Amino acid sequence: MKTTICLPRGRELCLDTPQIMGIVNVTPDSFSDGGFYYQADNAVNQALSLLEQGATILDVGGESTRPGAPDVACEEELKRVIPVIEQIRRHSDCVISVDTSKAEVMREAIKAGADIVNDVRALQEPGALEVVAQYPEVAICLMHMQGQPRTMQNNPTYTDLVTDIKAFFSARILACKDHGIDTQRLILDPGFGFGKNLAHNYELLGSFDSFQSFELPLLAGLSRKSMFGHLLNRETNERLAASLAGALLCAQKGAHIIRVHDVQQTADVLKVWHAACNGVTI
Ligand code: 9MG
Q1: Fewest C-beta in 10 Å: which of 80, 154, 158, 242?
Q2: CA nearest neighbour of 219 among 260, 264, 181
Q3: Bridge partners (DSSP) listed for residue 130
Q4: Which of 23, 66, 143 most suits a substitution to test ligand 1, by most atoms within 8 Å of the C-beta?
């Protein structure tokens, strides 16, 4: 079965092989690159470099979602992400995703050229469903999170992790349908690290393939996350090998999109896996 997702301006994203989503944080407080790319020009240069390294999707975000991160006002988030999306669009026809939960930021980002709305709150904030319903060509990533970033790591609890996340996806897919949003626009992401303890995160990694039952594209975001730091006692900048292992495992278990900081290294890993599965011509 061919897996593609439709995008604005008649474009399509083919997901037959896993695609790399490069992370472009436009925040002063993001957990892993410490705000180095806060300036718009730096963020755009970083974004173009990620494309050269093998990313086909860029995920531009102006609000950190790390545990305990402060909220960012809508005006501030707009100021951070819109100029970056506009500038990337001027330079490239690549797939741009906006990482936001705010309806107003979604609307302005789509107008500026975003193709995907990546919402860690799965369109549960006021107005979000209504905005994306108005732009039928834009794809949407619905991520599972228990709680809110500020408190989500305070003793997260599940009856059964995978069953509970599946029930959440079913409810959000239904909410989308009720707002006239075509299910074929949706991408699902079980949300590593979002309201999950260490055991939950590794259970999720081991059972990532369970979410294939929705027959929708799956996104995995594990890059440099604390599930590696805590298991291995590694600082954020020492988690590359673990992140690559996580990316490969998710790809093998059916992930269509892998969201990462380290694009070139992830691209190498996926190429080796692809060659082993499909052979190489000499
Ligand atoms: C914004 N963001 C941070 N981590 C993420 C993850 O794991 N998935 C998605 N979709 N977005 C994320």
Answers
A1: 154
A2: 260
A3: none
A4: 143
The position carrying tokens 């975003």 is 114
Q: Which pLDDT score is estimated for 196?
A: 96
CATH of domain 17-274: 3.20.20.20
Ligand 1: residue whose CA is nearest its atom 5: 221
Asked if residue 144 lies in contact with residue 122, where contact means CB atoms within 8 angstroms, the answer is: yes
Question: What's the CA-to-centroid distance between 191 and ligand 1, angstroms?
Answer: 6
Q: Whose CA is nearest to atom 6 of ligand 1?
A: 221
The C-alpha atoms of residue 156 and residue 158 are separated, in whole angstroms, by 7
How much of the chain, in percent, has pLDDT values that exceed 90? 86
pTM of the model: 0.96
Q: Which residues contact 150 (CB under 8 A, 6 or more apart)?
A: 67, 68, 69, 70, 71
Question: For the chain, what are the domain ranges?
Answer: 17-274
| Pocket residues: Cβ below 6 A from ligand 1 | 61, 65, 99, 118, 120, 141, 143, 189, 191-192, 219, 221, 259
